[in-house]
Write a structure and sequence with these properties.
InterPro entries: Amino_oxidase, FAD/NAD-bd_sf, Flavin_monoamine_oxidase. The protein is of the alpha/beta class. The chain has helices spanning 11-23, 65-72, 96-118, 136-148, 157-162, 176-181, 225-230, 241-249, 306-315, 317-332, 368-373, 395-415, and strands at residues 4-7, 27-30, 42-43, 51-52, 58-59, 77-79, 85-89, 92-93, 169-172, 189-190, 195-199, 205-209, 212-216, 218-221, 234-236, 252-253, 255-262, 274-277, 289-292, 299-305, 340-343, 358-359, 380-382. The protein folds into 2 domains: 4-39 and 179-250 and 365-415, FAD/NAD(P)-binding domain (3-Layer(bba) Sandwich), CATH 3.50.50.60; 82-166 and 255-343, Polyamine Oxidase, Chain A, domain 2 (Alpha-Beta Complex). It binds flavin-adenine dinucleotide.
């Protein structure tokens, strides 16, 4: 009997597969999509240049397992650690005094969140910040929607505390998705194979897919918590209540990326510059912030997160591109439209293979990520970004978790021979 069936060929599934291959354990890796990489995806077609639709930053690059993968593959890792930042107030650049206020807001908010999280409090971030701080909404818009994919009411101080925000961070010129896809080299991935049911009532597991039924001693599931919560994969018998609760308590946040291609004009921004503008204090999270010309490419990356991101995803690509262009013209004026070529929007919100961008742990809950990571009946195992520990939500968290769980499974499989 096949020893392990891996569901999903993203960073977690691919690293697990490589580990099992190394250990000499038999496995099959199946993937619903036409491509590998999952949420690590570099599109080359839509704008005619590499665009990272999912992950972009190799964060904590000096300790990140994927840095070595990228270097070994000969990819161009571009240091983005100390990128410059532009801050606008309306249609002008911020004064030094405004910059100071913004920096102070960022520091104070982070301090408040960390203080609560350090104490083990899983409070909504919105409950611990002071409301009367100038530039508070501007700072919240980066930290909540654009970092975690949720507004402050949905961000847990504990989840914030438990996750590492590492520097240095690198961008990959050929794309982070390109980097993750190299993990599939030498692996036989069954693409276009969508799982709909997992039966673990007998010995081993029986997995129904769009290409027929597969049997294995164990299954490793790496799909997002959005997919797990959707019910698109049913379990027989149902998963234990503890597992079902864990899935509900680690829902998906959303970051929508809106890459905007220009004709080569630089509009006053340097390569890799962060572009932020002041948001009205009652509009925290309702913003589109940008990264200009990443790795020298001719596009700006608009980033829209959380509730506004879900709303614009429902409205469609034109609405998101209009919103991003509106934000840009408010800062720079309508003349920039002359240089605009094309804009696109990522579809993670509505994509049935993700249903969101990356996971967050709900305020008011503790231990959900750990509970999610526990195996069921020694036959159903879980890996992926949601159980990535201090690097949850990140591609390297996914990669490391896949490797770790595969080691555990290999031990069991080899002992059972
Ligand atoms: C917009 C965005 C920005 C991000 N930015 C960063 C960043 O800058 N840095 C960073 O480190 N991380 C970032 N991330 C997060 C990172 O991309 C993810 O954490 C990581 O890629 C997740 O890997 P995974 O293997 O856990 O899951 P996935 O990549 O989702 O892999 C799971 C696979 O399962 C497949 N699947 C789903 N359902 C089924 C089914 N029914 N049957 C079979 N297969 C199925 C999917 O198609 C997918 O390929 C970002 C993500 C997004 C979306």
């Amino acid at each position: 009997m096949l020893e392990v069936l891996i569901i999903g060929a993203g960073a977690a599934g691919l690293s697990a597969a490589r580990q099992l291959q190394k250990k000499g354990v038999s496995f099959k890796i199946i993937e619903a999509s036409y491509r590998v990489g999952g949420r690590a995806w570099t599109d080359q077609q839509m704008l005619g240049v590499p665009v990272d639709m999912g992950c972009s930053w190799v964060s904590g690059a000096d300790k990140n397992s994927l840095t070595k993968v990228g270097r070994n593959a000969g990819l161009t890792m571009v240091d983005h650690t100390n990128a410059s930042e532009a801050l606008y107030v309306g249609d002008r650049r911020a004064t030094d005094a405004e910059w100071d206020q913004f920096e102070k807001a960022r520091r104070k908010i982070d301090k408040r969140l960390s203080k609560a999280g350090k104490k083990g409090s899983a409070l909504p971030a919105s409950a611990v910040i002071s409301k009367d701080l100038p530039f508070s909404a501007t700072a919240q818009s980066w930290l909540g929607p654009m970092d975690y994919g949720v507004d402050f009411k949905d961000l847990s101080t504990l989840d914030h505390w438990e996750q590492t925000d590492d520097q240095p961070s690198y961008l990959v010129k050929e794309g982070f998705g390109t980097l993750v896809a190299t993990l599939a080299d030498g692996l036989d991935v069954s693409l276009n194979t969508k799982v709909s049911r997992i039966d673990w009532s007998g010995d081993g597991v029986e997995v129904e897919t769009s290409q027929g039924t597969l049997r294995a001693a164990r299954v490793l599931i790496t799909v997002s918590t959005g997919v797990l919560a959707s019910g698109d994969i049913t379990f027989h018998p149902a998963l234990p209540v503890e597992k079902q609760e864990a899935i509900q308590n680690v829902p998906m946040g959303l970051l929508v990326k809106v890459p905007l291609l220009f004709d080569g004009a630089r509009m006053g921004f340097s390569e890799g510059e962060w572009v932020t503008y002041k948001v009205d204090e009652d509009q925290a999270g309702k913003a589109c912030y940008f990264i200009a010309w990443p790795c020298g490419h001719d596009y700006l990356f608009g980033n829209i997160g959380a509730d506004l991101g879900w709303e614009l995803s429902r409205a469609g690509s034109d609405a998101a591109v209009d919103y991003a262009m509106g934000a840009l013209t408010s800062m720079l004026g309508n003349d920039v439209r002359k240089h605009f070529v094309q804009g696109i929007m990522t579809d993670w919100a509505v994509n049935p293979l993700t249903y969101g961008a990356y996971s967050v742990q709900r305020p008011g809950t503790t231990g959900a990520r750990k509970a999610l990571g526990r195996s069921v009946a020694d036959r159903i195992f879980f890996a992926g970004e949601a159980v990535g520990g201090a690097r949850a939500a990140l591609a390297n968290g996914a990669y490391d978790s896949g490797k770790k769980v595969a080691k555990k499974i290999a031990k069991k499989a080899l002992a059972a021979r």
